[in-house]
Amino acid sequence: MKVTLYAWLLLLVCISACNNAPRPVSRYASVTGLRPEKMEEYKRLHAAVWPDVLKMIRKCHISNYSIYLKNIEDHWYLFSYFEYTGSDFNADMQQMKNDSTTQRWWKVTAPCQLPLPDAAAKGETWSGMEEVFHAQ
């Protein structure tokens, strides 16, 4: 009886540890242009992102999401970075794309952005970037 109880406790501890194990992290970065006349609006929108948009970001296993602004030769660019911990990136991105609140958010932010040619050719806003270095 003692062995069985001990075995069950050990099994529960193992299951709990497995459920709390960190998921592998994938990092994503992308870039898009920003219309200079829309810069203040874009900053204002992102200073108060809609709560349901943030909720969907978390629901789709995205964390450490940041957007940076940079002027290069009189052109403004937005650089985005996030970490993904889910198991099906395409499905999670489709879920986000189908979310009505996220769609409304994108309709508000899209006029501020100026997609680069590769993204515009695909009807997208952000151009994906290749990771060439990462240090922990």
CATH architecture: 2-Layer Sandwich
Number of domains: 1
- How many helices does DSSP assign? 6
> Given this structure, which CATH class is correct?
Alpha Beta
Judging from the principal axes of the Cα atoms, what is the shape?
globular
Coarse structural class: alpha+beta
Low-confidence stretches: 4-17
N-to-C SSE series? HEHHEEHHEHE
Beta-strand share of residues: 25-35%
The residue fraction in helices comes out at: 40-55%
Mean pLDDT: 89
How do the helices and strands line up, and which of them pair or pack?
Layout: H1 2-19, E1 26-34, H2 39-47, H3 51-59, E2 62-72, E3 75-84, H4 89-98, H5 100-109, E4 113-114, H6 117-121, E5 127-128
Antiparallel strand pairs: 1-3, 1-4, 1-5, 2-3
In short:
The protein has one domain (about 25-130): Alpha-Beta Plaits (2-Layer Sandwich), CATH 3.30.70.100.
Give the key terms.
Alpha-Beta Plaits; 5 strands; 136 residues; globular
Give a structural overview.
The protein contains six helices and five strands, in the order H-E-H-H-E-E-H-H-E-H-E. Strands 1, 2, 3, 4 and 5 form a five-stranded antiparallel sheet that branches. 7% of the residues are buried. The protein starts with a helix and ends in an 8-residue tail after the last strand. The protein has helices spanning 2-19, 39-47, 51-59, 89-98, 100-109, 117-121, and strands at residues 26-34, 62-72, 75-84, 113-114, 127-128. The protein has a single domain, classed as 2-Layer Sandwich (Alpha-Beta Plaits). By secondary structure, it is an alpha+beta fold.
